[in-house]
Amino acid sequence: MGPLAYLECKEIKMKRMKEFKKVCIANRGEIACRIIRACKSQGIKTVVLYSDPDANSLAVKLADEAISLGGTTALESYLDLAKVIDAAKKSGADALHPGYGLLSEKAQLATACESAGIIFIGPSALSMEKMGMKNVAREIVSKLNLPIVPGYNGEKQSLDIFKSEAKKMGFPVLLKAAAGGGGKGMQIIEREDQFENAWASAQRNAKSAFGDQTLLMEKYFPHIKHIEIQILGDQQGKIVHLFERECSVQRRHQKIIEETPAPSLSAKLKNEMGQTAIAIAGAVNYIGAGTIEFILDTATQHYYFLEMNTRIQVEHAITEEVVGIDLVAWQLKIAQGMPIDFNQESVTQKGHALECRLCVEDWQNNFLPASGKILRWRWQELKGLRIDHGIEENGMVGIYYDSMLAKIVTYGHDRNESIKKMQYALANLELLGPSNNRPLLISILNNDTFKSGNYDTGFISQNIDKIKVRWQEEMAQEQVKEEIVVAAWLSTLWQSQNKKNTVWTKMGLIPAWRNNFYCHQKKDFQLGTETLTLLYEAISTSEFYFQIATDWKEEKKKKVQMIKANDGVVIFLLEGKRVKYSLAQEEDKIFIHHENLGAILLTELPRFKSSEKAKSKSNHVAPMPGKIIKVLVRAGDQVKTDDELVIIESMKMENSVRAIRTGLVTEVFVAHGQLVEKNDRLIKFEKEE
Asked: How do strand 224-233 and strand 288-297 relate by DSSP bridges?
């Protein structure tokens, strides 16, 4: 297929030509902070809307004003259209920026803004209606005779209809929310007997995340690349594309690494896709920033229209880095009626940019969501490094919103340089507290297939087991265990003595407080399922002999000398080698930053065993904190291995707890709507304590 001709836009809305004095931001997290930064660069005041859990967020602190929406979940706050519009009107803002996700692709929001006399920073409601609903967008693109993924996007939404259409196109198929994006709630169905549960789950996810349970279904291609084109259109009818982004490194159908330029696409193919994107945007008279997404069949090099996102994308930052254009600033300019002051021919890509999404999740356990307090958040400044985030130390990560905390972006003269910078940046990026995917990102960057650029959307599923094994092998190394245990011990010893003896503290030394000064002492730590015992004896107030063992053996002792153990940093000489670790402590839990392994959790065990009765043993517990959205069994039910018992929602994702054995349910501890913490007991089987 050759380059498509530019489609002239018709029925363009009247130019607004209004200068903004204040913008209302109807979003949260890093994108709210990003919009605040763009507004400040243009001298525009900001007012951010927030839910109860976000009352002390960084975005609230950075904005000139903040207005509470109340509520806890997205449905009770950011997705409540009436609340959002009422707050925007009260703020006296000239315009509203929806960010991404939440209500950003709802035509009703654009319409409500217009009715309230507030300028919507984005496309017209009509454009959003046409392209924001993925089923309608498919019809439009099909009529343009452009390549489109085979699928079903009809008005009839019954289970029987979807089953029938799936049989026609053949398994596997993909169910997705018609009103949303970001891969949330997508369900791959490989067999007919999986259909009913997957269909019900996809509807629930669509309703929860986007307020609309309408679904569409597409043929699922197992080996594809995910390529998207950034476009920008003004109110005068001019549309340009700002080249492509490669977004094929995904887990749970959600991107975690993106890059531009795409490493394995020909210049001819990139040009065709860019012109196709302009044609699609032109067909709906598109205004503002938007993205046309395609899938590319790696076997045939044929591409197909997937969807259009009528908003700014998470990964817009890498486009900004290579083209030198501030997309959020241009959203503001276009909404004020300013024309795009550059032509397609003048836009060029320079260098290479890479983005890694830092997410709180248990990447080794099917990417289950995580939560908790951020105990340490630091990084080293680096030329070509950009970190977009909305978090700060001592902030809480809850269970109600998306798991992404920050975007780590590096820019280099070429792909190799940007990868090396990212490897360095991630190695020195410290996020301690909630579980996160930093080790996975580092492992991906070291993978030969990723380095080659010849990867597809199956990359994670094809490599995750090998990555886990390598991580476990490195964690099992004696040197790693030894260093992190010594770091944890010296930190706790310093803190303990810092409280007890201010004289020694002022001297910068750790006192040996035992009466029997030279007798070896003992400290136990839990690392995963392993108990590590550290034995030590004092040489002086800052030097010790130690060994990781259950019994002291004179021939195996090693020497460690303390240099520093405060301000979240431990520095020591271990057998003459200088070792440095960053760490944070919360009660008996010690989180240690390791440049490759991520945040390692050690638990300091008490000197004397607790006399409390051991807790009941059960494997049917909550795998993460979340909200119970469905209980599928009752006391007295007989269940088989792998039967679904309970469905938990956390960070807008559903996760099933399944039976680990055949048995009789004797007690159910949870109900619909109940909030649970990780490891809370859910179900009791017969013969369980």
From this structure: antiparallel
Both ends of the chain: CA-CA distance in Å?
Answer: 66
Q: Which CATH class is domain 150-220?
A: alpha beta
Is 137's pLDDT higher than 90? no
- The reported pTM is 0.82
The pLDDT value recorded for residue 510 is 47
What dotted CATH number matches 22-123?
Answer: 3.40.50.20
| CATH class for the region spanning 351-468 | alpha beta
CA distances for 559 relative to 108, 573, 582, angstroms: 68, 8, 21
Tokens standing for residue 117 = 């006399």
- DSSP count for the chain of H helices, then E strands: 17, 38
The architecture (CATH level 2) of 478-604 comes to 2-Layer Sandwich (3.30)
Q: Is 16 a catalytic residue?
A: no
Q: Which contacts of 296-302 are long-range, i.e. CB under 8 A and separated by 24 or more positions?
A: 296/224, 296/225, 296/226, 296/227, 296/265, 297/221, 297/223, 297/224, 298/223, 298/224, 298/225, 298/456, 299/223, 301/269, 302/147
Query: What CATH number was assigned to the domain covering residues 626-685?
Result: 2.40.50.100
Among 138, 311, 415, 438, the active-site one is 311
Domain locations in the chain? 22-123, 150-220, 351-468, 478-604, 626-685
What is the share, in percent, of the chain residues with pLDDT greater than 70?
Answer: 91
